[in-house]
User: Fold this.
Amino acid sequence: MGYTNQRIAYGNTLVELGRQDERIVVLDADLGASTMGKLFEAEFPQRHFEMGIAEANMTSVAAGLAQTGKIPFTNSFAVFAGGRAYDQIRQTIAIGKLNVKICGSSSGLSDFGDGATHQCVEDLAVFRAVPNMTVICPADANETVEAVKAMAAMDGPCYLRLNRNDYPNVTKEGEKFTIGVPTVLKEGTDVALFATGYMVGLAMEAAEELEGAVSVRVINVSTIKPMDAEAVRKMAEGCRAVVTAEEHNVRGGLGSALAEVLCGEPKPMKMVGIQDTFGCSGHNYQEVLEYHGLTKSAIAEAVREMAGI
Assistant:
């Protein structure tokens, strides 16, 4: 079944996995109706735990469940999943390499109506800096389905970043997801355009708009950590410059991760993202994205600049 919303794709995939593996358990922090943990609760009430507005406690309980052989998925808004529970994530889950899957829902600016307190523009940086943590940011709902399956199959701590809103898929339904491996969505020779999450679709639109003027290679980086450094270098090879696009602070996210990988063979590079500021509220998602310069035209302009046209 096809989905156009990452949260719904996530919730239904958890149910599917729950039918296959009794070790799967789900914990929610009073947001099950938004994170779609409610879908798992409806089918497996004995394996769903409503922890209330207490993310730190939820995370500690998940750590305990992991030590009994369960595969716990914890759900909350991204800003709370890592922010309120960082100590428990670091001290117990990451240091202990426990098999806990943390889902940060309504990430980036996607909770447009609630403003900076409920938006999360720094989660990739936070989780990427935690040793032993895998960090995944799927491009769309199709990729979310496969990413969740891959997360459940791997052993160890993992963070999943999900958008709140409906938007079109750019990846194929059922396409195999391999943790750590970026994928080329469009070939090109002038500029390598690396994007993650919602921005992958805008990157594709910008590349198509520039067709004939600039040859753009579009790469979907859905695993922020670990990052296949050799694959990234090969994908940037032959291009004059690199542009990155992310719905995240330009400090510490995708752009920073790529700069670390490419610093041995540096190229001109420009990062399209949130310019070290918190989010803001708006009438709709597009309005907030435009305010922060996260648009197709902003990506196209960055590519033109790096291509020298």
In short: The CA atoms of residues 94 and 118 lie 25 Å apart.
